[in-house]
């Protein structure tokens, strides 16, 4: 659809009061298209699910969309995976999340949030008391970024599902997230997906400790199965699927 298509759909959404699910993925929307879509997102309070995945949004689009996400009162689920958000744009999107008090699910997977984007997400998780699902898989999040998100997770009470797969956060990053759960007795986390990394003794012991605190927690990760078999409690071992898809389809 491109820029002209974004302009036309934006004009329609400014008037439409019946559509609640809107799927616009794979339309080569770029930073120029974002400004038109932002007008609609800001004004329309009826659309509950918006999918803008597989487009060409960059950092300028992240800044524009982040501001209007903060003001939208209708969206419950926002998918914007497989775009080109890095640093500044990623941080702007995350700040919008922190200010939004209606959004339940956010998918920003397969972007390039890195440390700065992860830091903004961590701050957003401290402030947000509504979001239940967050998918930040494959966002180039290193140890430092994982620890920023862990700091937010330590204070957050409402997030239920967090997907951190395919990030080079190493054992230290995974341990940081688990320690954050240990320190948050009021956490709402039900499912935590960690990267497929080698499991050392510290991580295996942390997995056991967290499972004792939260016996209903679904903790999924790959790694060294021998260490896991020696641990006292069974932690579900999860091998990443070859094809991109829902983690529930993993074996």
UniProtKB/TrEMBL annotation:
Classification via Pfam families: LRR_6 (PF13516)
InterPro entries in UniProt: Leu-rich_rpt, LRR-containing, LRR_dom_sf
Protein name in the entry: Leucine-rich repeat-containing protein LOC400891
């Amino acid at each position: 659809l491109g820029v002209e298509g974004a302009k036309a759909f934006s004009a329609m959404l400014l008037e439409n009061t019946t559509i609640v699910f809107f799927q616009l993925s794979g339309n080569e929307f770029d930073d120029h298209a974002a400004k038109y879509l932002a007008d609609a997102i800001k004004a329309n309070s009826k659309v509950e699910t918006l999918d803008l995945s597989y487009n060409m949004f960059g950092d300028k689009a992240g800044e524009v969309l982040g501001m209007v996400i903060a003001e939208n009162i209708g969206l419950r689920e926002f998918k914007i995976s497989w775009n080109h958000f890095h640093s500044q744009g990623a941080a702007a999107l995350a700040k919008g999340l922190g200010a939004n008090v209606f959004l339940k699910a956010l998918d920003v997977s397969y972007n390039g949030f890195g440390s700065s984007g992860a830091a903004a997400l961590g701050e957003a998780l401290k402030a947000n008391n509504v979001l239940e699902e967050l998918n930040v898989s494959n966002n180039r999040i290193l140890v430092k970024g994982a620890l920023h998100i862990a700091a937010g997770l330590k204070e957050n009470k409402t997030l239920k599902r967090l997907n951190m797969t395919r990030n080079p956060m190493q054992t230290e990053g995974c341990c940081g997230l688990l320690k954050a759960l240990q320190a948050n007795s009021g956490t709402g986390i039900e499912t935590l997906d960690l990267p497929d990394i080698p499991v050392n003794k510290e991580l295996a012991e942390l997995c056991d400790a967290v499972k004792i605190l939260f016996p209903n927690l679904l903790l999924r990760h790959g790694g060294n199965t021998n260490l896991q078999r020696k641990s006292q409690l069974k932690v579900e071992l999860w091998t990443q699927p070859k094809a991109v898809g829902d983690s529930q389809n993993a074996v």
